[in-house]
Design goal:
The protein has 661 residues and is mainly alpha-helical. The chain contains eight helices and no strands. The chain is rod-shaped.
């Protein structure tokens, strides 16, 4: 209908250009007061009406666009709320971790003090061990001197045995010659007796002489019997001396057996100690592996947080740019609306002038134009009503969503707080258990070292007592041997065959005792070598303990660096949360346009804070020299050293015979 009304008034013969270029006052009729350019003005008005209709169509589409934009803005606000929740959760986690780090630092300081005291105790133990080693070296020197003395005594005894055997052989030859002479004299006497019996009748004088000779021979026989009895007594004495020698040899064998049993006990104790050391080393390796896995998990969590923060900052910046563009579009639309309203007012004035000038001809156009203008005037009011309704709906939806989000956020925060509290309790329990185990390990090590020192002192004292006993026994044996040799030299010069056999037995027993002494010396040398190896292993284990303490100090430095990074994150997150709260509170009381602008500004500030936080975390400013690479290298070195110590102990135990088995 509007197109038909406009087409009715299109003239068939338009005015020439000269009239169109004339001024308005010149073109006015003097009789009716109507301008000749009324047709052109009507055409211009029609063109303006078409432009206004186009603008109205554009505004009709703008309502839908605004609705779509509102939906997008709501989704973006939801995402921003989620990200703010994540930030608050991370802030709470960082605060909890800060508290845990403070407690751990205090515990680490206490452990450092204890380590210092333990180091002092270890130094004292080392000094005592060195003194014991010096004492053992001195005792070894004394033993070597005693061995040389014993060897000299052996040589002296062998020489005396050879001389004594020569004397015994000489005595045996003398006794055999004396017996032969005695038998010959007996035969001679028997012949004389036969001669005397046959010559009794011939000569009494010869009988008297024979009686005298018989008396002399009887006296000689008595003397010989007394000598034989003395020789029997000497043989008995030699037998008694041999019995005493046998008893002394048995005592010496018992002493060697007791020493061998003591050595076996010492071996068993050392085996148990080595097994305990190996078990402790395995436990420490497991602890180190668990700590490394915890550190890796913490680093991975930090990296994930950094990535999330970077994504959040990017999304926030893009959202802010979109909001700024939308605000500019809304301002342009408002300006166009104001311009359209001004143009409509001007058209109304012109229409009144034209109605006043053209009473009859322009009434239809006036009515149609009035209708169109009324419709045009009604469009802004309709738009305002629609905008107000949409704003009211948007505010209601926003308030409802805000309530739902706050309720959900509080629930999630409560759940996460409970989870964090449970995790912290479990972690604290684990830390306390680890500290208790570490203290128990340190106390057990100290006790073991002290027990070893006491055992070594006892062994040294026992060795000193045994050396003194062996010295006294050797001195007494030497004195007894010298006395016996002197007695044997002063004894009879006519020994019997039994004495020769007894001397041979004594020589065999002396040879056996020499062999047993040589075996005991070899066993003592082997034990000394094993003792030196054990001392080296103990020193190596002490060095590994010191290195582990140094690695723990490095871990404390790394924890301090992590604490500094977490403090920087906490500060940045607190500033971001404050800016978000300040931006949300005024947005609920203002209009839609101002609300978008204020939210954009606050989100810009929050975005800048988040970017500063992420840069501060990744900038490498807080990194320290003994952070990650040094920790991994030191832990690997400690593992390799412990493995080498275990291999050495295994190889040495295999070479040690019964001790290794």
């Amino acid at each position: 209908m509007e197109d038909q009304s406009v087409r009715r008034f299109i003239p068939e013969h338009p005015l020439p250009k000269e009239i169109q270029e004339m001024k308005r006052d010149d073109t006015v009729c003097q009789f009716c007061g109507v301008s000749y350019l009324i047709h052109n003005e009507m055409k211009a008005l029609e063109m303006r009406v078409k432009e206004v209709e186009k603008q109205l169509e554009y505004y009709k589409g703008s309502v839908k666009r605004e609705e779509q934009l509102k939906v997008k803005v709501a989704s973006m606000e939801e995402e921003s709320d989620k990200l703010s929740r994540a930030l608050q959760a991370s802030e709470q986690r960082t605060s909890i971790l800060d508290a845990d780090l403070m407690s751990k630092q205090n515990q680490i300081e206490e452990l450092k003090r204890k380590n210092d005291s333990l180091k002092i105790d270890k130094q004292n133990d080392l000094s005592q061990l060195r003194d014991l080693v010096k004492f053992l070296s001195r005792s070894q020197r004394d033993l070597q001197i005693q061995r040389t003395g014993l060897k000299d005594l052996k040589l002296f005894v062998e020489e005396k045995n050879e001389a004594f055997s020569e004397q015994i052989t000489n005595l045996s030859t003398d006794v055999a010659l004396f017996c032969m002479k005695f038998l010959e004299e007996k035969h001679k006497l028997l012949e004389k007796l036969t001669r005397c019996e046959t010559g009794k009748t011939f000569a009494e004088e010869a009988l008297q002489k024979s009686v005298v000779s018989i008396q002399e021979l009887s006296s000689k026989c008595m003397l010989l019997e007394s000598k034989v009895s003395e020789q029997d007594k000497e043989l008995k004495r030699v037998k008694e001396q041999n019995d005493s020698y046998n008893k002394e040899i048995h005592c010496y064998k018992e002493l060697t057996k007791s020493k061998s049993s003591d050595l076996n006990n010492y071996k068993e104790k050392l085996q148990t100690q080595t097994e305990v050391f190996q078990q402790e080393i395995t436990l420490k390796e497991d602890k180190l592996l668990s700590k490394e896995s915890q550190i890796r998990e913490l680093t991975e969590n930090c990296q994930n947080l950094e990535k999330r923060i970077a994504e959040f900052t990017n999304n926030r910046n893009s959202e802010e740019e979109k909001k700024l563009n939308r605000a500019a579009e809304m301002e342009a639309l408002k300006e166009s609306l104001t311009k359209a309203n001004d143009e409509v007012a001007a058209l109304k004035l012109e229409r009144e002038m034209m109605i006043a000038a053209h009473h009859n001809r322009i009434e239809q156009l006036r009515e149609s134009f009035k209708k169109k203008m009324e419709e045009a005037d009604a469009w802004p009011s309709k738009l305002d009503k629609i905008m107000k309704e949409k704003e009211a709906q948007f505010l209601e939806e926003k308030s409802n969503l805000w309530k739902e989000l706050t309720d959900g956020f509080q629930k999630e925060m409560d759940e996460e707080q409970q989870k964090h509290i449970d995790d912290l309790a479990a972690w604290r329990k684990e830390a306390k258990a680890a500290q208790d185990k570490f203290r128990e390990d340190i106390t057990s090590l100290n006790r073991k070292h002290r027990e070893e020192i006491k055992q070594l002192e006892r062994a040294a004292n026992e060795a000193q007592g045994e050396t003194e006993q062996t010295r006294n026994a050797s001195k007494s044996i030497i004195q007894n041997l010298e006395a016996k040799i002197l007695d044997l030299e002063h004894r009879t010069r006519q020994p019997s065959v039994e004495s020769v056999e007894h001397v041979a037995r004594l020589t065999t027993k002396l040879q056996e005792s020499d062999k047993s002494l040589q075996q005991a010396e070899k066993h003592i040398i082997e034990l000394e070598a094993k003792k030196e190896e054990w001392i080296e292993e103990i020193v190596f284990l002490k060095e590994t303990v010191q290195r582990e303490c140094e690695e723990r100090l490095e871990l404390t430095d790394a924890l301090a660096a992590a604490r500094a990074q977490l403090l920087a994150l906490q500060r940045a997150s607190v500033s971001g949360a404050n800016s978000l709260d300040s931006s949300r509170n005024p947005s609920l009381n203002r209009g839609s346009g101002k609300r978008f602008v204020s939210n954009g500004i606050s989100e810009n500030n929050a975005g800048t804070d988040v970017t500063a936080c992420s840069v501060g975390f990744d900038g490498g400013v807080v990194q320290r020299p003994g952070s990650k690479s040094s920790r991994t290298g030191s832990v690997d070195d400690g593992r390799q050293r412990i493995a080498e110590a275990v291999r050495r102990s295994g190889s040495k135990s295999r070479l040690g015979g019964k001790f290794g088995s």
